[in-house]
Amino acid sequence: MKQGIVALRTAIDFELPAEVQKLADTAWELAPQFRERAREYDKGIRSQKEDFADLAKAGLLSITVPRSMGGHGLGASDSKNPLGMWAITKALAYADLCLARNWENHVNTIDTMTFSGCSLETQRRWCAKTVENGAVWSNWAAEPPKSNPDGSTAYIGQTLAEKVDGGWKVNGKKRYANTATAADVTCVWVMDKAADNFFDGILMLMTDTHRPEIKIEDWWDAMGMRASDAQEATFQNAFIPDADQVGAAGAFFKMPAWSMRAVPHYAVSFLGATEAIYDWTIEYVQGRGKGRDQFVRHHLGQMHAAIEACNALLKELGKVWARGDEAAIRTASISFRIMAERTALEVAAHAIKACGSTAFHRQYEFERMYRDIQVYVRHENIDHMTSNLGALCAQADVHTYWTPGQVVKAQAES
Q: Which of 126, 193, 297, 327 has the most beta carbons within 10 angstroms of its beta carbon?
C-alpha cells in the first residue's frame, strides 16, 4: 500500500461520545506516520520512542488516567464501557500491530494500578509521570519457563521479592518484557519469598525502568512482532518501596470482571491489523488489474463480510460491558476474542489467494503484516480460552486466572 493511505472505515457506527470520538480520530490522523515508521522498526533500525512521543504530544498516552488526575478517564475507574479505548487501539493496530501491542500494555497497566486498591497518593504520583512528562508504561509478568515436580511448566513466580525495611528487594529475570527499551516505568510481577502459595504471594510493584539494578538484554528475535521489543529484564537487588506496591498480595486474581478487559483488547488489535491487510489487498489487486477477476472479488467479499461482522460484535461487546453483568462480560469477551482471531486468520488467508505469492516479497508491507498477525494471535492461548468458554456454558469449574473470582487450582500460565 502507498505510504500514508488509511482507507477502510467500517460502516458500523460505534456511537462514541463526541469527546471520545475526537480522540479516536486523532489516532487515525497519526496512523499514516506510524505506518511509515513500522518497516524500520521491524528491521530494528529505529525505536518506538518516536511513536510514543507523538502519542504523548497528542494527549493519547493518558486516556486511562482518571479525569481527577488529569487524564481522559477511559479506564475502569471512570468508565464501564471500554469501547472508546478499543476504538483508539484499533486505529493504532491498523498502522502497526507492534505499536498497538505496546500501547495496550501501557494503557492496561495504568488501568490496573488505578483500579487495584492503590492509595490515591501512589496513583497520582505515578500517573503524573505520564500526564506531565509523557512517561511510557509497561507490565512485566512472564519469565523463562521452569518445570514443576508434577510435570507442568511455570512461566511466572520465580522473580522473588524479599521484605526489607521500607519495601522489597527484588531479584529475578523477566521475559517478554514488552517495550523494554522505550518504557520509562513498569509494573513488575514478583513472588513474595515468604508466601505460602502462589495466588496469595504474587505482588505487583511499580518501578522506573532506567536504573542500574535492572539490566535489559537483547533476547527477542521472533518471526513476527519484531518491533514489540519484548526483551529480557534482569533485576539484581532492586529496592522498591512499600509505597509503590500495586494493591494487596494476590489482588489481581481477586479483581472483578475488570481484569477481563485485556482479553478483548488483544482481539481489537487483531481486528485493526486485519482491516489494514484488507485495505492493502484492495489496492494491490487494483494496481495489478485484478479487480475484475471474479475469483479475486470472491475473496474480497469474504474478507469484507468477516471484518464487518467482527466490528458489529465489538460494538455489542461494549454494550455488554456497560451493563456490568460479570457473567455476560466473561462469555462475551472470550467469544469476541475467539471470533477476532478466526477473522484475522481467515482474512489473511483470503489475501494470499487474492494477491498471489509475489505479495510476500519484502518490498511489500503485506509480508510484515502477515508475520505480525500470525504471531500475535498466539497471545493468549486460544485453546485454553475456548475450553474456558465451554466450561462457563456448562457451569463447570474454570481453572485459569482469566476467570476472576474463581478458585484457581492449576499453576497459572502467562
A: 126
